[in-house]
Design goal:
- The complex is a heterodimer of chains A (112) and B (113).
- The termini of chain A are far apart.
- In chain A, the strands form two sheets. In chain A, strands 2, 4, 5, 9, 10 and 11 form a six-stranded mixed beta sheet that branches.
- By secondary structure, chain A is mainly beta.
- In chain A, 37% of the residues are buried.
- In chain A, 0% of the residues lie in helices and 56% in strands.
- The termini of chain B are far apart.
- The relative contact order of chain B is 0.33.
- Classes of the chains: A mainly beta (112), B mainly beta (113).
- Chains A and B meet through strand 4, strand 5, strand 9 and strand 10 of A and strand 4, strand 5 and strand 9 of B.
Chain lengths: 112, 113
């Protein structure tokens, strides 16, 4: 089945700096890669996603890149703000699209 | 208009008891999931149903029995609760084959004492 690995597990950045989280996946047939943000005590919510026919996608301060050959994808947050502090999860669908597997999560702390 | 709702939000119970968590979605999705999030925050998939049919069962103990009466509902019944079952359980739904996001319920914090 799909295996998603995520690094780093924790990330502390100064406000205004950038944060980068990296994920790798195992199933070469995976074709959908969402990123979720989970604030303390809340449900995970989608912040950005990318499909396999696209290499990069940007939405204001967040961007995601996908390298299908290397089977890895990354989340970039620029000009970080204290409200960006949360746990971020990458995910990937399996070859039949039924399974959505998550990485282990990255706890991001933005220092004011 | 809550898209994915699960009840209860909190559940405290003694070891050995049987409990159920209910989930409903009004998004018209055909696929529903149960995830377990332990203290380390890892979101582990437990089950996936598509149009009421069990598609994925991720080596979950058979004390956990999901039931989907229709494609808008996916309930989770847990028998003989153990201390290690304490976690937050999330229900989620999405449209299979559409490469679209999964929407999560608010979670049920289960504490077994």
């Amino acid at each position: 089945g799909e295996n998603v690995e995520q690094h780093p597990s924790t990330l502390s950045v100064q406000e205004g700096d950038s944060a980068v989280i990296k994920c790798t996946y195992s199933d070469s047939a995976s074709n959908y890669f969402p990123w979720y943000k989970q604030e303390l005590g809340k449900r995970p919510q989608l912040i950005i996603d990318i499909r396999s026919n696209v290499g990069e996608k940007k939405d204001q301060r967040i961007a995601v890149t996908l390298n299908k050959t290397a089977k890895h994808f990354s989340l970039h947050i620029t000009e970080t703000q204290p409200e960006d502090s949360a746990v971020y999860f990458c995910a990937a669908t399996g070859s039949n699209d039924y399974k959505l597997s998550f990485g282990a999560g990255t706890t991001v702390t933005v220092r004011a | 208009d809550t898209a994915v709702s699960q009840t209860p939000k909190y559940l405290v119970t003694q070891m050995g008891n049987d409990k159920s968590i209910k989930c409903e979605q009004n998004l018209g999705h055909d696929t529903m999931y149960w995830y377990k999030q332990d203290s380390k925050k890892f979101l582990k998939i437990m089950f996936s149903y598509n149009n009421k049919e069990l598609i994925i069962n991720e080596t979950v103990p058979n004390r956990f029995s999901p039931k989907s009466p229709d494609k808008a509902h996916l309930n989770l019944h847990i028998n003989s609760l153990e201390l290690g079952d304490s976690a937050v359980y999330f229900c989620a739904s999405r449209l299979q084959g559409a490469n679209t996001e999964a929407f999560f319920g608010q979670g049920t914090r289960l504490t077994v004492v």
